[in-house]
Amino acid sequence: MNNKIKIPIAKPYLDDSDKKIISSVLDSDFLSGGPYLKKFEEKFAEFIKTPFSCAVSSGTAGLHLAVKALGIGPGDEVITSPFSFIASSNCILYEKAKPIFVDIDEDTFNINPEKIEMAITEKTKAILVPHIFGQAAEMDKIMSIAQKHRLMVIEDACESLGALYRKIPVGSFGNVGVFAFYPNKQMTTGEGGMVVTNSQKVDRLCKSLRNQGRSKGDKWLESKILGYNYRLDEMSAALGISQLKKLNWMIKERRKIANLYNKELSVAKGIKIPHIALNRTHTWFVYVIKIFNGKRDLIMKRLSAKGVQTRNYLPVIHLQPFMQKMFGYKHGSFPIAEKISRETLALPMFIGLQKEAIKYICDEIKKN
Ligand SMILES: *Cc1c(COP(=O)(O)O)cnc(C)c1O
What distance in Å separates the CA atoms of residue 170 and residue 163, rounded to the nearest whole number? Predict the structure, then answer.
């Protein structure tokens, strides 16, 4: 990508209320562990409709805590999707458990529930479900498989904040749900994440683990367990509060952009626009099209030459060099995910992306 980017793929939406609340933190004496942290957690739990929430320093940190707090460890297997951001498998490896991949649904790009049961063994402890690109996985089927086999469920909702499945927010189905607030997500805190749960025990454990294994009521600097520094600072927590206030509006704006793309691309030759499955809402972390006839990379290059940044979301996890080395995965191990990975292209998606820019991007794509 040596050409100057005129239209980036993503951009955070920040306004005066965001600047104001951050500067109010700077005027106080609490830059960490202050009142905004607690308020952000409370407001977020209200939004997702879970009783407990624990703010952390990133989505990846949140996923690690989720795996750890559920007691998953060496020798355990966790079923997950190869078509996700690498963090959703790395968090399993951090605890020396093994990710067991299951191929995906061709239309939603989420884990295919029909293939989960075949992958269950006596070592399986949990299903880690990524909700990809802003749309929920098929939670009814996944939850009933989990119940039948007494497996725990971790939802990686880092790409799908605000998405609903049968009107229920993602992140609230499983034992634990994890969200991320990196600047390209639906809302941002700079870096940051959130772990939500229905279990007070899991919540307490996460809050202790994020703070060097210290618990409320412990003596200062007494660690009962091995912990980490996964705390979210007060500036980030404050930004989380002001971002969360406008989250529903921001999702609506993203939806408008997706609709404009849909209009331009729905009849384009060799292109398939995103599919929204039954009983689901989409919150558009990214707008991803499928490009057939092998022209994905060519179109990507042409867009780049026109100053339009795109991404080949997502490369499959099992073919990442270190994964191949560790587990011996080959091309063809998960054919649907690999095929989708060759065909998909993420187009610019951010609030403020103008109708004219969308037309400019789509015209270039339609030259096909
Ligand atoms: C963004 C993301 C994460 C977490 O990312 P951080 O950069 O650690 O906040 C985890 N899983 C998925 C699927 C993601 O898209």
Answer: 6
- Residues paired with residue 169 on neighbouring β-strands, in sequence order: 164
Peptide bond into 265 cis (omega under 30): no
- pLDDT tens digits for range 74-93: 999 999 999 999 999 999 99
pLDDT at 2 over 60: no
The minimum-distance atom of ligand 1 relative to the CA of 131 is 13
Q: Are strands 77-80 and 168-169 parallel, antiparallel or unpaired?
A: unpaired
Report yes or no: 171 and 158 within 8 Å, Cβ to Cβ.
no
Pocket residues: Cβ below 6 A from ligand 1: 58-60, 84-85, 87-88, 130, 156, 158-159, 180, 182, 193
Q: How far is the CA of 122 from the centre of ligand 1 (A)?
A: 29
Atom of ligand 1 nearest to the CA of 181: 9
Please give the number of the atom of ligand 1 that sits closest to the Cα of 58.
9
pLDDT tens track for 322-345? 999 999 999 999 999 999 999 999
Q: What's the mean pLDDT in 294-317?
A: 96
The residues pairing with 152 across neighbouring beta strands, listed in sequence order, are 126
Residue 249, SS3? helix
Q: What is the DSSP string of 169-182?
A: ETTSSSSEEEEE--
Mutate which of 9, 56, 58, 60 for ligand 1? The one with the most ligand atoms within 8 Å of its CB, which is: 60
